[in-house]
């Protein structure tokens, strides 16, 4: 018998960004498995105080307006969750990131007497615990949630250091390999995006400093010194407070300003098409990073270069499924990009292995079964199974 699940997420399709796409994929997956899902998400397109509902099959999406005061928005999110519990007889709340949504899910769960699960993603922990506005409520949510999940052991260890000696459930990210795949019209897509015969470095998600935007721009500069046909495509959105980094680079390179382009996307299908237009996907994150875009690129048979940071470390096996470079090393990144575009044999080897890895290790069934296990544990049933309990502080050997 399926569960009635309340999903709280800060972004949901058709919003842009990795969280929105991941949330929609997870909700669709749960609905196909026979669960009823109620999504609760804030929207800047709805006036504060207003609520809009969209019902389709087993999924109800509730969007509510954002207030100027974040605290007021949080309280309204809590109220909406409590109302959803009553209306839909929800069994469990699930926050899709360790941020604002985690507080709303756990608080509403304790108010209603049902369990709450908090899923940590890539860099959400780093962002939350260093933000005075969020750190206290996120720490409280991690400590009080009935279950916490992590996409990798390293990120699980971060939870362990923050929330004490508690169980963290390993829920590996997955990819829809039917959407994210090599497309026959990849060259045509490049033409429609205005890329033509350019050599393209791609990035997907919200481009920002901590995700390696500075390293990307510096590496692009190195490549352009040798070949003016290079372009950097930022697929998704540019973080507002980091937009000056791109503007500054373009001002310093006026003749090459068009070498950097932003390509918005709203659906997984649109993102897959953009990834097919890339020669290389690069994620040179400075610190912890989410893995979703990297896995999607691997499924598209687009070669990947990542930095050696938690969330990506171990996901990409160096010289087997992709290339790995040190963080903040633009020279190493440029060299890796050159290797991937200049060595057809290496490129084929890595993309073939990357696609095979995505099909086997990032299968949606694995993510669903692991998540259902975490739900079961939060509800007080099921075996210990996939529980990962960390006994040592991360960094110690």
The major β-sheet equals: 9 strands, mixed
How would you state the average pLDDT, rounded?
91
Number of domains: 2
The counted number of beta strands is 15
Instruction: Please report the distance between the alpha carbons of the first and last residues.
Output: 44 Å
CATH topological fold name of the largest domain? Rossmann fold
Which descriptor suits the 3D outline? globular
Q: Any idea of the CATH class of the largest domain?
A: Alpha Beta
Which spans have pLDDT < 50 for at least 5 consecutive residues? 384-397
The run of helices and strands is EHEEEHEHEHHEHEHEHEHEHEHEEHHHE
- Provide the CATH architecture of the largest domain: 3-Layer(aba) Sandwich
Broad structural category: alpha/beta
CATH level-4 homologous superfamily of the largest domain: Glycogen Phosphorylase B
Percentage of residues in helical conformation: 40-55%
Tell me the β content.
15-25%
Could you give the order of strands across the largest sheet?
A: 3-4-2-1-5-6-7-8-15
Q: Total helix count?
A: 14
- Spatial extent as radius of gyration: 21 Å
């Amino acid at each position: 018998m399926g569960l009635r699940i309340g999903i709280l997420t800060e972004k949901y399709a058709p919003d842009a960004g990795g969280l929105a796409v991941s949330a929609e994929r997870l909700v669709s997956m749960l609905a196909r498995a026979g669960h009823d899902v109620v999504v609760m998400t804030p929207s800047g397109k709805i006036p504060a105080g207003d609520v809009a509902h969209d019902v389709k099959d087993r999924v109800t999406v509730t969007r509510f307006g954002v207030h100027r005061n974040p605290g007021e928005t949080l309280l309204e999110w809590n109220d909406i969750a409590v109302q959803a519990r009553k209306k839909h007889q929800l069994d469990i709340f699930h926050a899709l990131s360790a941020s604002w949504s985690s507080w709303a899910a756990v608080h509403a769960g304790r108010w209603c007497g049902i369990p709450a699960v908090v899923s940590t993603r890539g860099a959400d922990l780093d962002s939350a615990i260093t933000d005075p506005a969020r750190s206290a409520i996120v720490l409280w949510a991690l400590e009080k949630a009935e279950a916490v999940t992590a996409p990798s052991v390293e990120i699980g260890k971060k939870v362990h250091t923050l929330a004490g000696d508690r169980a963290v459930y390993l829920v590996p990210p997955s990819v829809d390999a039917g959407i994210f795949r090599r497309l026959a019209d990849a060259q045509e897509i490049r033409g429609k995006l205005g890329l033509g015969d350019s050599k393209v470095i791609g990035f997907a998600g919200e481009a920002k400093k901590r995700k390696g935007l500075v390293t990307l721009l510096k590496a692009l500069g190195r490549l352009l010194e040798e070949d003016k046909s290079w372009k950097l495509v930022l697929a998704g959105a540019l973080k507002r407070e980091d937009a000056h980094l791109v503007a500054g680079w373009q001002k310093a390179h006026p003749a090459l300003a068009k070498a950097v382009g932003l390509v918005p996307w709203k659906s997984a299908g649109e993102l897959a098409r953009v990834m097919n237009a890339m020669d290389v996907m690069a994620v040179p994150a400075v610190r912890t990073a989410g893995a979703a875009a990297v896995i999607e690129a691997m499924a598209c048979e687009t070669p990947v270069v990542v930095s050696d940071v938690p969330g990506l470390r171990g996901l990409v096996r160096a010289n087997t499924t992709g290339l790995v470079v040190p963080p903040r090393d633009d020279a190493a990144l440029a060299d890796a990009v050159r290797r991937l575009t200049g060595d057809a044999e290496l490129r084929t080897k890595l993309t073939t292995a990357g696609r095979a890895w995505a099909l086997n290790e990032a299968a949606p069934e694995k993510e669903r079964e692991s998540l259902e296990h975490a739900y079961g544990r939060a509800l007080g049933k099921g075996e210990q199974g996939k529980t990962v309990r960390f006994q040592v502080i991360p960094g110690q050997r």
